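Notes on consecutive records. When two proteins share a document, each keeps its own sequence and its own token line. Never mix them. Below: protein one.
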Amino acid sequence: MSLLELKNVTRRFGDFTAVDNVSLNIEAGEFFTLLGPSGCGKTTILRMIAGFDLPDAGQILLDGKDLADTPPEQRPVRTVFQSYALFPHMTVAQNISFPLKMARIPGKEAAKMLHETLELVHLADKADAYPHELSGGQKQRVALARGLVNRPRVLLLDEPLGALDAKLREEMQVDLINLQKEVGVTFVFVTHAQVEALALSHRIAVMRDGRVEQVDEPSRLYGSPQTRFVADFIGHINMLEAQVLEPAHGQFRLGVSGLGEIMTQPLHGVAVGSKGTFAIRPEQVRIGVHGEIQELKNHFPGTVRHFLYRGDVTVYKVSLANGAVIEALLPNSAPGRAELFRVGDAVNVGWRHDAGVFLHE
């Protein structure tokens, strides 16, 4: 049995359905992320787990028990918000201890729990400081410590890193991973940032318009998306309209208008003539001068339309004969090389026969 289960949960606000028949299983000790654009329903799910909101239909179960009749303060669940929500008149120690005070934990035990938690988030030296004396990252660690101090079964994190700058956000991602491993508490994390979700999560539920599009491990979501939305939402990807020419016999041939045939990974249960999208990541696309990538089964001539130098890599946009544009990513590993091709250069792009994925309509 999963620690936390959502069974056919629906939440409506007037005529608007914010969460539409969602079912999820979240395991004990898991770092589980709800990922999607604004308005997709992820924060509404978090609020229902916390008890701040109730579903119109369906059940939310913790350890097999329906939470419907359990008020927020009695649920073994805590929430960390993007805004930190710290008490400005309280010290770091007082902020972190507040849940222990509300739970009437005896003084000696509460002091021990506070000390352990301060050490856990590396804030023992800031115990007597006030929120206005802390950096953004330190405030976020206080908010995390307050959520973890009484070791809830589930910690809910609603865009907790959203207020931090890019460098600090990256540092806090590492802190979050280490913290979750150390305390073993189940984290349910909400974000719209794909890179953050991929870096932090054991599993991710990608949401769209109140529904779950796909639940999977980060590597599978990125490498084997099941829908056009998931493929397009997570990372950069090339998408070409395609039709199935041959679906079996160990090879999967697709016809792409203006390009001709391409080969890709076998996909079962798809009939000849089926229409869909061939999707391939830029890092799977090779780029070279004429004759350099002829050994690849899929290779096509084109012209460099744009390029973007990013330091470690250069991203090229190549126009093909049919007007399609393919994005290719080339590492800048050679010493002193800033670019290899210029706008207007004739090039070939190609990819392996087992790269990319066909997304059936």
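Protein two starts on the next line and is unrelated to protein one.
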Amino acid sequence: MKYRRMGHTGIKVSEISLGAWLTYGGTVEQQSAEKCLTKAVELGINFIDIADVYARGKAEEVVGKVIANYDRKDLVISSKVFWPMSDGINDRGLSRKHIMESIDRSLERIGTDYLDIYFAHRFDYYTDLEETIRAMSDLVDQGVVHYWGSSVWPAVQLERAVWLAKDLGLHPPRVEQPRYNMLDRFIELDIMETCNRNGIGIVCWSPLAQGVLTGKYNDGIPEGSRATTSDFIKHDLTEENFARVRRLQEIAASKDIAVSQLALAWILRREEMTSTITGATSESHVISNVAASDIPLDNETLEEIETILKNKPETHPVYRPPW
């Protein structure tokens, strides 16, 4: 396993990390989840990403049970706050009240005294940004959070957060967690540049486009699969994307690797990326994902991939110069 520094911080995380979204505490039974987590740590993954809203707190409990078997200082544990955890009118968003109450509940469920990273799970347009930054910065000062970050924040709000924090003498966001994969390259437009310029690390989620980039949907969508229930995947289920994956599989086969490993290695080609958050429902998934950390892609291969994807994001024509 290889490790990368998170932005301009001193902390290092594994290039391949493990996330608990849609799996642990939910669709994956306890024993399988524990095996995946144990195998991940065994193979060098030190970054485990969860959120309070994942299975309404159960994912945090599952992870907490496993990490109790390890030296806490050897792990980088993150959780998130934003989405409703109940019907309570204040049990949502990024108000100071919700942040301060949520961190206590997350720490209790995980069974730890601190989080290495605490993510604002979306941008809150209904709470003043200064209120959110002050709350997160206070958690850092209190020692219950080492770094705070954002998830799926627009570039302009990241920029605002950084400069507002500097102006107020507060702790700025240190890491952004966006969606990024071969089929969704939106962050290449301005988020990557914004993060790089401000020393913000990037840890992406959905690197395999919810399974589309594994090739498992090339021959149809199985009954009861994630593709029939998740809104995050529906727009990726197109014949155009399936055709892309089939051609990518040919490249992967020529290198004697899985197309999923090719997709992960393609993400790690970018120096701006700190880590890619993978999901796993079995130990074999963990083993396969971890192997991607050691797969180099030469320029010829990257150019071949680019000719297949043909989806590099471009600025709106109004903002693009005519030359």
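For the record: The radius of gyration is 19 Å.
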